[in-house]
Design brief:
Length: 385
Amino acid sequence: MIKCHFNHIRIAGFRRLRNVDIDMRPLCVLIGANGVGKTSFLDVMALLAASAEGKLNAFVTEMGGLSTMITYDYAQSLDISISMQAEEFKPLVYDFSITPTRLAYTFKREILTQRQNARVNDQFNHIDSTNGDIKYYELGTKKLVRPNWEHNPLESSLSQVPKMFKDPELFRRALSSSIYYHILDVAPRSPVRLPQTMRPAGLPGQDGEDMVTCLYYLRETERDRFDAVEDTLKAAFPAFERLDFPPVAAGTITMAWKDRHFSRPMYAHQLSEGTLRFLWLVTLLQSPQLPAVTMIDEPEVSLHPDMLRMLAGLLREASDRTQLIVATHSDRFVRFLQPSELIAMDISDEGNATMTWADSLDLEKWMAEYSLDELWQMGRLGGRS
């Protein structure tokens, strides 16, 4: 599998993200007060994923229309540029601009370019579309041509052009595979607490609907990763012994949590909210089929402070296999991170979001006396806590 990651993004005109320009790293943890744009940044990545998958119209409709997402009073369009670096080829840059109309939106611009060498003007266009004039590079003619099929104007050209070239198709797949995980629902009848159908599952599911089957699949096919899950649970819960997966009905299994204090196991519906959320996070971060980008909103919810150190380590290890974008409000969690993993978000005097990597600030002398969370509380990072 080719290792790739997105290394830069520029966003103009999305809610409070009026004009942000930031490098992206394998692990990006967003901190800041409510309303500074952390969720908006995750939503932009989700929008890009939907666009690459051919589901942009559905996404925009679900979000209430493009006009509700555009920065009020300051922007007439949404403009995004994102670049990707991979091991085997030159970086790709995807640039698009969409403008709301009375009933929907139109693409003003959509360009996918690839620099061939260091010369400024030496770049190759895979897609070059402006104001509805759609062009893509055709392998046979070796030039930009217009599509000879019915092009859906509400979906990106990236999702519709022929998948002939390895580099742009890898870019599209990486972007479209991105998954956004919200806070896990652990209500009494939530999917994570119920028996689950036994089938191969490489991820635990956004609602935990495949967590049991994912753990079972890990135990049977990737024993080292399953052992790592159990080792983490033993470190977090000293009385924990093992996980079992008894059948419930034909093709259905549940999860049994064995605790050395009790003769009988506990089942998923009996576990605490924090225990379930931590188990789901550990399963996710050990999963063998992590996408190119994994977004997690507030992973610290319900977790005891002692578990946050483990969570930071799990995220760090997983960032070798997926690019992680995490949003948090927890100063306790920040304590266990490095400045190179932390983006402080704040609001400017004009009401716009700002994004600053913590290691770009002069923190060395301060960190000799204070922890990173203390510096956040003191205001040395910006990004009000």
